Amino acid sequence: MAKQKTALVTGANKGIGLEIARELAERGFHVFLSARKRDAGLKAAAMVQKQGAKADFVELDVSDPASVKRAAKEVAAAADHLDVLVNNAGMHEDGDGDVLTTDPKLVRETIETNALGPLRVTQAFWPLLAKSDAGRIINVSSGVGALHDMESYAPAYSISKTALNAVTRQSAAALKSKGVAVNSVTPGWVRTDMGGTGAPRSVQEGADSVVWLATEAPKDLTGQFVQDRRVIPW
Ligand SMILES: NC(=O)c1ccc[n+]([C@@H]2O[C@H](COP(=O)([O-])OP(=O)(O)OC[C@H]3O[C@@H](n4cnc5c(N)ncnc54)[C@H](OP(=O)(O)O)[C@@H]3O)[C@@H](O)[C@H]2O)c1
Question: What is the pLDDT of residue 1?
Answer without folding.
Answer: 62
